[in-house]
Design brief:
GO molecular function, one term: DNA binding
Helix content: 40-55%
Organism: Cellulosimicrobium composti
CATH class of the largest domain: Alpha Beta
Keywords: DNA-binding, Transcription, Transcription regulation
Structural class: alpha/beta
CATH topology of the largest domain: Rossmann fold
Shape: elongated
Number of domains: 2
Order of helices and strands: HHEHHEEHEHHEHEEEHEEEHEEEHE
InterPro entries: Carb_Metab_HTH_regulators, DeoR-like_C, DeoR_HTH, NagB/RpiA_transferase-like, Tscrpt_reg_HTH_DeoR_CS, WH_DNA-bd_sf
Pfam family, one: DeoRC
Low-confidence stretches: 1-14, 77-87
């Protein structure tokens, strides 16, 4: 049987990459750029356009991407956050980048929990970006740069295309307002897992009330994740500090670290420090 030039490229890759490694790199690019064209991938990888088209067709068949005329778009491109998550983007991005860096500095190949929300969604993106350069040798040794366990559908969708991240999504009933999974199935699964660190978004953090959110069902799932975590990193903008919402997630004694922005006042932060919470201001 005669092996054609393009068939050989499918298996080995003209740039010397195996098909599996080539796909990993394509998916990593897709996660960053959200869309790729056949031409740009062929040029960047040094392979034929027909090989790229076959790769894209196969990725689409496996629901790893959506096929378009001349290329692909990320499977997550249709999953934006609801419009209510539109304020204080710059503060949240700084908080997210700092929280992600803190996690990766303190833990090697950690198991990281994330509940739903704008800030935790940005933390997920930052974790993906900050682990992009993980070497292939390191990945072969540990399998993944990190494992993320999340109760939010949009966070799972954000990370699933990143080959260096193992993504675990809890079961349960999805809430349209936040994309969070709630109910007995989510709580039961959360209680079977152990986390190194939980990065937790909230509507309020207060020395007396602890961490709070607006929905008891979401609070129940997040409480289960807190109970299975070695440490808890709360993330939230300064308007959340010193306030409380409807449903308690956990006591302040269960919070290890708070990452917030410089708008938080000393009067709001000092009671948290006195309660033993490490405060990181960015």
């Amino acid at each position: 049987m005669t092996t054609t030039h393009d068939e050989l490229a499918d298996n080995v890759g003209l740039a010397g990459l195996s098909k599996s490694v080539r796909w990993e790199r394509m998916l990593a690019l897709l996660a960053d750029r959200r869309r790729l064209s056949v031409t740009e991938v062929a040029d960047e990888f040094g392979i034929s356009e027909s090989t790229v088209r076959r790769d894209f067709d196969q990725m689409a068949a496996r629901q790893l991407a959506h096929r378009t005329h001349g290329g692909v778009v990320a499977a997550s491109v249709a999953y934006g956050l609801p419009r209510r998550y539109s304020k204080q983007v710059e503060d949240k991005q700084r908080i997210a980048a700092a929280a992600a860096a803190l996690v990766l500095e303190r833990y090697t190949a950690p198991v990281v929990g994330l509940n739903g929300g704008t800030t935790t969604t940005l933390v997920a993106k930052a974790l993906g970006e900050q682990t992009e350069e993980t070497s292939e040798d390191a990945l072969q040794q540990s399998g993944h740069a990190l494992t993320v366990v999340t109760s939010a559908l949009n966070i799972a969708t954000e990370l699933v295309l990143r080959p260096q991240v193992r993504t675990v999504c809890l079961g349960g009933t999805a809430r349209a307002q936040s994309y969070e999974l709630t109910g007995p199935a989510a709580i039961q699964m959360a209680r079977t897992l152990w986390l190194d660190v939980l990065v937790l978004g909230m509507l309020g953090i207060d020395a007396a009330a602890g961490l709070t959110c607006g929905d008891p069902d979401e609070a129940g799932v997040t409480t289960a994740l807190v109970e299975r975590s070695r440490s808890v990193v709360a993330v939230g903008t300064s308007d959340k500090v010193g306030t409380r919402s409807f449903a308690q997630i956990c006591e302040i004694s269960q919070v290890t670290t708070l990452v917030t922005d410089s708008g938080a006042t000393a009067d709001a932060l000092d009671p948290l420090r006195e309660a033993g919470v490490e405060v990181v201001v960015v």
